């Protein structure tokens, strides 16, 4: 599992528990975020992908299923380009193939400017609120905000730059693993055209749309999300 911008491995505890009888779960903390906030920030999506592959190699993991959320979904698309034959099943969750994020609640440039003017803590809490249908009043918000606050200003700006500079559109038709695309129909970060592009372009793709969910489906409707994961991962 690869988290997104301002995420961390701790956000996946519900999925780690739910999947424990189905498969072993490795939840990574990307450099600059979560428990690896002390590591130097990475400047590009391809460099993040290389780091993920290096971690799996260091753990001796040859074949794997791969889930990426948000920015993590961009990263796992790059991993699939580099190591597609090692991936059994691919899950692209609340993500897209255009890093400029057309239709986002605010542009990347606006996020960068506000991160510099408001400071990292305020920015982390504000952006985390956008992941939930009911914002900061949602169950799970405080936990996500606390994870987001671990990222420093360098990691925030580097992550935003990495997304803005990236496009995976040209590679979508070459992604070979069986793929599941997951999207919440009230997502403020990735609009429907990004999701539809993944669904219609990546070969061997299924689509799961969750109603009345924003960007953090796994926290807003965890039981339904977990059942969907297990069904996809265990399907022959």
UniProtKB/TrEMBL annotation:
<protein>
    <submittedName>
        <fullName>2-hydroxy-6-oxo-6-phenylhexa-2,4-dienoate hydrolase</fullName>
        <ecNumber>3.7.1.8</ecNumber>
    </submittedName>
</protein>
<feature type="domain" description="Thioesterase TesA-like">
    <location>
        <begin position="4"/>
        <end position="176"/>
    </location>
</feature>
<dbReference type="InterPro" id="IPR020802">
    <property type="entry name" value="TesA-like"/>
</dbReference>
<dbReference type="InterPro" id="IPR000073">
    <property type="entry name" value="AB_hydrolase_1"/>
</dbReference>
<dbReference type="Pfam" id="PF00561">
    <property type="entry name" value="Abhydrolase_1"/>
</dbReference>
<dbReference type="InterPro" id="IPR029058">
    <property type="entry name" value="AB_hydrolase_fold"/>
</dbReference>
<dbReference type="InterPro" id="IPR050266">
    <property type="entry name" value="AB_hydrolase_sf"/>
</dbReference>
<dbReference type="GO" id="GO:0016020">
    <property type="term" value="C:membrane"/>
</dbReference>
<dbReference type="GO" id="GO:0016787">
    <property type="term" value="F:hydrolase activity"/>
</dbReference>
<keyword id="KW-0378">Hydrolase</keyword>
